[in-house]
Amino acid sequence: MLEHVELFFKSIFIDNMVFSVFLGMCSYLAVSKKVATAVGLGAAVIFVLAVTVPLNWLLDQYLLQDGALAWLGPEYADYNLSFLSFILFIATIATMVQLVEIVVEKFSPSLYNSLGIFLPLIAVNCAILGGSLFMQAREIETLGLAFNYGVSSGIGWFLAILAIAAIREKIRYSNVPAPLRGLGITFIITGLMGIGFQSFGGMLTGGDEAVEPVEEVTAEKIDKEQETEEKLDEKTVSFNTINEQ
């Protein structure tokens, strides 16, 4: 349970897709002018990551890894299909994005029109593919952890685009210097938000300091200390005798 909690918070705050590795920046900058649009795209990203990361984990474990085909028989144990990772991961992502696009167009035409071309572009959004590739690189052990990682990574991206959209809506009424208006001030705010998110690293690393082992007190060590003290006492007596003479 603790492993799930740690992965959840670490994926949202410390390893945030936007503020830590700067993935999905094109959609982050282009669709963050209004909060309503940002919420719609963020929810779509959460759904796609929550579905594709576990599916790609299954593909990686039972099809792509070296020896993953052993379940088909001993003669397939030496096969390694890891070179197909990108193709199969993108195929899974494109399928889920197409499903999301159909659902959004059916039930929320206004949101579909607001998102425009960026909704189908989720299929090639580096944050979506990055979620599956990071899952593979970190060798996540179970399907539950893979699902946890997909959801938490999506929530982290959602919080990032929601926060910048809310700030950009308010900043319209601020007196921003002319050279910084638009993307300039957006990049500055993104950097400051990234620093703030990285500060959450102390939540998971603050108690991991190594404790120095306590030396065991043995009889030999006590005898050596007593001999040293006796020698010091003898030298002190001799020194005092010389001074008196």
Any overview of this molecule?
The chain is mainly alpha-helical and 245 residues long. The protein folds into two domains: 2-205, no CATH class; 216-245. Helices cover 68% and strands 0% of the residues.
How many discrete structural domains?
2
- Kindly state the mean pLDDT as a whole number? 82
Q: How far do the termini sit from each other? A: 77 Å
Largest sheet: none
Identify the overall geometry. Answer: flat
Oligomer: single chain
Order of helices and strands: HHHHHHHHHH
Task: Give me the secondary-structure category.
Answer: mainly alpha
Strand content: under 5%
| Percent helix | 55-70%
- Low-pLDDT sequence parts: none
Total number of helical segments? 10
What is the radius of gyration?
29 Å
Number of strands: 0
Compact summary:
The protein has ten helices and no strands.
Descriptive labels:
245 residues, mainly alpha
Please render the helix and strand layout as text.
Layout: H1 2-14, H2 25-30, H3 35-64, H4 85-107, H5 109-115, H6 126-137, H7 143-171, H8 183-198, H9 202-205, H10 219-244
